[in-house]
Amino acid sequence: MNTADAATASRARYDEAALDALSTQGDPLADETVATLLRRGEVGDLNTLMRFFGTAGDELPDRLPASARDYFEATALPPGWVDWDVMERARLFFMDNAAHINTGLSFAAMPVTYAVPRMARLLSSTHSLAYPSRRMANTGQFVTYLMRSDSFAQGSRFIPAAQKVRLLHAAVRHHLREGGHWDVERHGLPICQEDMIAGFGMFSLLVLDAMHRLGVHMSEEGAEAYFYAWRVVAAVLGCDMSSVPATLTECRAYLDLYLARHLGPSPEGVRLNAQLMRLYEDVVPGTLFDPLVPATIRYLVGDTLAGWLEVPRGPWDTAARAVPVFIGLLETIEDSGPLAEWALDKAGSLLAGFELSALTRGRVMHHAIPEELKPDFGVKLPRPGRWVPPPPVH
């Protein structure tokens, strides 16, 4: 099937009616588990015990509530359809591009999330204003766990982290819906399947888009492997895989429609993005490079979204457009020999590690079910060929 035929098929698969249906669906297994825990008053005990359950293969705590034990046992294994060769290619892609992926997550995927008013409102209702970096830290740590060679093996942290995130999402759905903080008729179910699948697309395709815009050289094989890894994440986090895009072209069709339905300005989005910019300005010592943060966001998301998020203009706006030239120069140096390749990969790995350490403040992030919400709202991938983003679906 050629690109045009694939785009036509994708348009046929995703339409307003399909996304309307997804907006009313949650995650039945996790939702029922949380509802049972809340009904029995067992959330506090679960949160305490969850801190001692952090690696795959650990024995579940003896005092774990029965409903939670059933949930953790049912979700302990990865999907049976996982192709481990592709996952290994995704890991190598991540190793080669860790710093670029983090940039795409931080300066493209996150701001686009904030430009969806209902997502911004939801995130605003659950954020800790005293620690605005929590979601970014959780996301960075989660991706790092995923891209380890032992991510699904005994002793890894990825599966337990995913199991906890899924329960957290279910708890937020419950509290917002049952507490009268959310208009389901107007906004759909909070953290519904429509939003969960969109989040998968933002953290996969939009990150690849950002890397492409920055001039990062990606092979088609590497880009598709990275996308595949996020499909595995979507399954582990409770997405309805019959509705999750199977290809990058399908993902483009889904995101085009989703964003056309939901993008717009909101005060919550402005506040969340301002917190994000302050966070990264604080990570880098001094103030000389502070203007590069909003300039990079504006370059990656465009003037319209940047305007909605009130991203300030500055003298670095023009300089940000030269980033692809700079990255191209670095990749030329990297290709010049194994020593240069090792040095730049090491530098990128250290930069990504420094960023994650700054975000998490050197500690492991723990996911806990909120009992109430805030009252207010190694081997290099081949370089021949280059990944080209799928075109917009009109």
- Counting DSSP H or I runs of 4 or more residues, the number of helices is 19
Shape: globular
**Total individual domains:** 1
Describe the biggest sheet? none
The proportion of residues in beta strands is under 5%
Order of helices and strands: HHHHHHHHHHHHHHHHHHH
User: Which regions contain 5 or more consecutive residues with pLDDT less than 50?
Assistant: 128-132, 339-344, 346-366, 374-384
Mean pLDDT: 78
The amount of helix comes to: 55-70%
Please write out the topology.
Elements: H1 3-13, H2 16-22, H3 28-39, H4 43-50, H5 66-74, H6 84-114, H7 117-126, H8 134-146, H9 158-178, H10 184-187, H11 193-213, H12 220-236, H13 248-262, H14 267-283, H15 292-301, H16 303-308, H17 317-320, H18 323-334, H19 338-360
Helix pairs in contact: 1-13, 3-9, 6-11, 6-12, 6-14, 6-15, 6-19, 7-14, 11-12, 11-13
